[in-house]
Every structure is written in C-alpha cells, then in structure tokens.
Amino acid sequence: MIPFNKPHLTGKETEYVNDAINSGKIAGDGKYTKACEAFFEKRYGFAKTYLTTSCTHAIELAALLIDIKTGDEVIIPSYTFVSSANPFILRGAKVVFVDSSAKSPSMDVDLVESLITPFTKAILAVHYGGIPCDIKKLRTIADKHNLFLIVDAAQTLDSYYHDKPVGSFGHLSAFSFHETKNITCGEGGLLVINDERFIERAEILREKGTNRSSFIRGKVSRYNWVDAGSSYIPSDILAAYLLAQLECIDEIQQRRLAIWKKYYLLLNTLQTQKKIKLPYLPEGIKHNAHTFYFICDSLQIRQNFITFMSQNGVQVQFHYMCLHNSPFYKDQHGDRELPMADHYQNCLVRLPLFYDMTEDDVETVTKLTLRFFNTPKT
C-alpha cells in the first residue's frame, strides 16, 4: 500500500529530543522553543512569533487578541477545517461563510465585501493546499472597512504571494505542524503577530493569563493573573523535534515540489481531455506543495476512483465537508447557497504526497490514475 501521508524524519529529531529531556527543562519556552521562534522571525521577517500547542490554539489566541465577543461576525470560507471556525464560535461570534472560487477551493475573494455588515469584526483567510489566494486584496478590503485580517495558514508554511511570505499579510496568522503538514512535530502550531500592539498581550494570554514570562525575565518581582488566558505553550520536547525539521526545510520543500510538479506534468493530458481539473496556480505565487489535488466531474466518478486506487494499493482521499452543511451549523447558516464549495466537497480528491515517496511510487500513482480515467466506462 502506498499511504496517503507518511511523516518524514530528518535524522536529528531523536538527538534534539533527548537533549531536551536531558536538560531537565522540558516545559515550554525552553531553548528549543526560542530557537524555533527565532527561525521563523529571521527567515520570514515576522514581527513576533509564539509556538503554540496547535494551529487551532493559535487561532483561538488570535480571537482573544482581537476581543471577539457575542454578536460579532467573522467571514470565513465554508470549504475549510472546523478549526477555522471553532475559535470564534467559542467566543460567541457568528461565522459568515463565503463560497469557494470557481478556479480554486480557496475563498472567492470577490464575494467577501458583499458579506460585510456593521457587525463584522474580522475576515479569516485560508489558502487551500498551500496555494495562496489573493491575500493582498483581502488585506485591502480589511483595511478599507477597519476589520482585522487573520490568516489561517495551516497548510501554507513557506508559500509566498508576490515574494512576501503568506503569513505576513494578516494582523495575525497561524501555522500548523500537525503530522500531515510539510514540517511537523506531531501536534503543534505557531501564532504570527504582524501588528505590534498584540505582542505583549499574546505572551500573557498563552501563559494562562499571567505575566509569568515577564517574571522569568526579571521585569516584575512576582507574577500574577492579569488577563483571561489558557495554556497554549507546547513542551520543549515538541519544539526540539520541530527544530530538527526546520533545519531541513529547504530539502523537504525541494523534494515535495519535485513530486508535485511531476504529478502535474504527467496528469496534464487528462486536463487537456477535460476529464479532470488540475490545481490553478495564480501568477506571482510560490506554493509549498502541501497537497496535490484534482477535481473530478462528479461525486460518483470520485468515489469510483478512490475505490479503484484502494483496490490497487494506493490510498487517496477526498477532503473537507463544507461547514455550512454541517449538522452543528446548518440551521444558523440559513439557506444561502454556496455552489462552488459544495462542488469541491463532492469532487475534489487528493493524491499521496510525502517526502519519502520514491520515483516508483509516483509513477505507480500516476499510471493508475491515467488508467482509470482512460479506461472506457461501461
């Protein structure tokens, strides 16, 4: 079986984890946490970064930082993971779903402004599959209406929009290091702060609402409960694992991009024949090869394809169930239709893509895909 995903080991994870354990200080904000945060700030020019226990928690911190309250509205795509919505729901806000684009599963940026009301407080952007949407236009809309822009960049580490890192466009951004991501520590996330007014409070919120970090630095004689917060700091053991991955990011990205490009090249004939639709790559973007997907013509074709590939030893997967159709939120969404989001829910399929795929693996997946779509259906 060729799995859909397999986390890559660079070789130094165990060494760094053992060093963290042997240091006797395995809680958060140790030397490996600080090394990871310094890496992100130096490589991408982010004003300030804080490691978190997950991308979900990074978005929760963002919701706290912009003081989301009952009655606020946040515009988010429907075709995304539930972690994009839950942080705002937990704060009592209403999420307003925007449809996907006809060109891409990401949100249709041109529809966003029509959804803004006097209650709108923020826009949350998601870049599907690591391919940036028009994030600059979203920031322009946010600034025009005095809204916050939060970037759910869970899948988008090392992706760029016109030479700027995707995470640099939002007032706040969040990344994921879940085991399915290009760079992983099993579970983990990162809050990126590009608006300096949030830096000091973010440090307090992620430290259970205390000024403990200031106490450790000797800035206060004791630490106290000074704000509402929670425990968002990961163990330095996880940060040690993550640092080993980050040190090999260029090598990892190069290999993933090579696989992605080979898929695209070998399957392009199916797009020419209008049997599938391959990912759309806007001008001026650099994606990170997080996901290779294509769009089938129907739900039935996709299901038949998944079954065929499984029978031939290859694990392929569909992706999100639209949030506006979810049992939890369907009644609150109302009857506004989001046809493109529904289309991707029914027709999008993802191929295996991970660092340790061999050339034979890639050839096997593409040959089976070509065989399925080129075999006459009875």
Q: What do you see in this structure?
A:
With 378 residues, this protein is an alpha/beta fold. It has 14 helices and twelve strands. The strands form three sheets. A seven-stranded mixed beta sheet has the order 1-9-8-5-4-2-3, sandwiched between helices. It has a three-stranded antiparallel beta sheet with strand order 7-6-10, with no helix packed on it. Strand 4, helix 6 and strand 5 form a beta-alpha-beta unit. Helix 1 runs antiparallel to helix 9 and helix 10 runs parallel beside helix 14. This is dTDP-4-amino-4,6-dideoxygalactose transaminase. Keywords: Aminotransferase, Pyridoxal phosphate, Transferase. It comes from Mucilaginibacter boryungensis. Its EC number is 2.6.1.59.
Describe the secondary-structure layout.
Layout: H1 13-22, H2 31-44, E1 48-52, H3 55-65, E2 73-77, H4 86-89, E3 94-98, H5 109-112, E4 120-126, H6 135-144, E5 148-152, E6 160-161, E7 164-165, E8 172-176, E9 189-193, H7 199-205, H8 212-216, H9 236-246, H10 249-272, E10 285-286, E11 292-295, H11 299-311, H12 330-333, H13 339-347, E12 348-351, H14 359-374
Parallel strand pairs: 2-3, 2-4, 4-5, 5-8
Antiparallel strand pairs: 1-9, 6-7, 6-10, 8-9, 11-12
Helix pairs in contact: 1-9, 2-9, 10-14
Organism: Mucilaginibacter boryungensis
Family: Belongs to the DegT/DnrJ/EryC1 family.
Keywords: Aminotransferase, Pyridoxal phosphate, Transferase
